[in-house]
Specification:
The chain is of the alpha+beta class. The protein has a single domain, classed as Winged helix-like DNA-binding domain superfamily/Winged helix DNA-binding domain (Arc Repressor Mutant, subunit A), CATH 1.10.10. The chain contains four helices and three strands. The two termini are 26 Å apart.
Length: 108
């Protein structure tokens, strides 16, 4: 049961996690996937459809950078709409966590 809840929670916050990473610095998809795999255990295959959706929603834009160690990399950066979405989602998350903590009796 706990694993099912963990999977559902991860799915629900992946957009927020990607926006948070990009708010700190621009990155390419593999770099984002590696960081999220390390931090929250997200699978690498999940990142590419997510990045495409964030781009379609106007939250990120891309640019290409030549790489000395392989193919050209597509970097992602937040747009103004992406920064606004990140701020809204972050506030919503904080409110949600606070509500859950109250429900659990953990008044922090």
């Amino acid at each position: 049961m706990a694993e099912t809840l963990r999977v559902q929670l991860k799915k629900g916050v992946m957009d927020l996690c990607v926006l948070a990473l990009l708010a700190r610095q621009e990155a390419y998809a593999y770099e984002i996937a590696s960081r999220l795999a390390e931090d929250v255990g997200m699978g690498e295959g999940t990142i590419y459809p997510l990045m495409r959706r964030l781009q379609d929603d106007g939250f990120v834009t891309t640019y290409l950078v030549e790489s000395n160690s392989g193919p050209t990399r597509k970097y992602y950066q937040l747009t103004a709409a992406g920064r606004k979405a990140y701020a809204a989602q972050k506030a919503e998350w904080a409110d949600f966590v606070s509500s859950i903590n109250r429900a659990l009796g953990d008044h922090q």
